[in-house]
Write a structure and sequence with these properties.
- By secondary structure, this protein is α/β, with parallel strands linked by helices.
- Helices cover 43% and strands 21% of the residues.
- The protein contains seven helices and nine strands.
- The strands form two sheets. A five-stranded parallel sheet has the order 2-7-1-8-9, with helices on both faces.
- Helix 1 crosses helix 7.
- The longest helix is centred in the C-terminal third of the chain and has 17 residues.
- It binds guanosine-5'-monophosphate (5GP).
């Protein structure tokens, strides 16, 4: 128990290849379970259509990102496909101490540093039903250039090799089943 008698929340590391459907699953998880909060990362990548600053990401310049590193403002930060991404430290700590279960939706290198730093963190990797399906989903999203899609698919193959080191692997074949499976994982690890 913390000072205010609230049971500290659990930290979840949540990863999966680009295009696997992590965002859609996350939305459903938060609607189904109000104890779940998503950490909003900072990134230097350009916003995609429909993405809002402060909701999907904090969209920052490279200089602003570097300033946050200097001020020790990140729990972890990484470069991914030519852009920088980082988990702001303070909001995560605040949400955990308020009793929320906090999901960090981050790529595998950042995930490894979080797991080393917080061994009690629960790690979940979302797998595509197949690589062909992943490619189809990335293309149908229509938000990335061909070169970006190619790079993200190559990165996905490397990431899949690391999936086995996560505590849980969930295949996103059927959205509702994947959501149910993760809600069950949350229950089991926060009871
Ligand atoms: P996207 O550009 O598709 O939004 O994200 C690219 C990758 O960066 C995804 O795998 C996403 O989970 C990861 N990512 C997002 N925020 C962070 C972060 O704060 N830290 C790290 N290490 N990865 C992140």
């Amino acid at each position: 128990m913390s000072e205010n008698n609230v049971k500290r929340g659990t930290l979840f590391v949540y990863s999966g290849c680009s295009g696997v459907g992590k965002g859609t699953i996350m939305k459903e998880l938060m609607e189904a379970d109000s104890s779940i909060k998503l950490s909003v990362s900072a990134t230097t990548r350009e916003p995609r259509e429909g993405e809002e600053n402060g909701v999907h990401y904090f969209f920052v310049s490279k200089d602003e990102f570097e300033k946050m590193i200097e001020e020790d403002g990140f729990l972890e930060h990484e470069e991914y496909c030519d852009n920088f991404y980082g988990t702001p430290k303070r909001p995560v700590e605040e949400m955990l101490s308020q009793g929320f279960n906090v999901f960090l939706e981050i790529e595998v290198k950042g995930a490894v540093s979080i797991i080393n730093r917080y061994p009690e963190a629960v790690s979940i990797f979302i797998l595509p039903p197949s690589l062909d399906e992943l490619e189809r989903r990335l293309r149908s999203r229509g938000t990335e250039e061909e070169e970006t899609i190619r790079k993200r698919l190559e990165t996905a193959i490397d990431e899949l090799k690391i999936a086995a080191f996560y505590k849980y692997q969930v295949v996103n074949n059927d959205l509702q089943k994947a959501v149910e499976e993760i809600l069950h994982i949350v229950k089991t690890n926060t009871a």
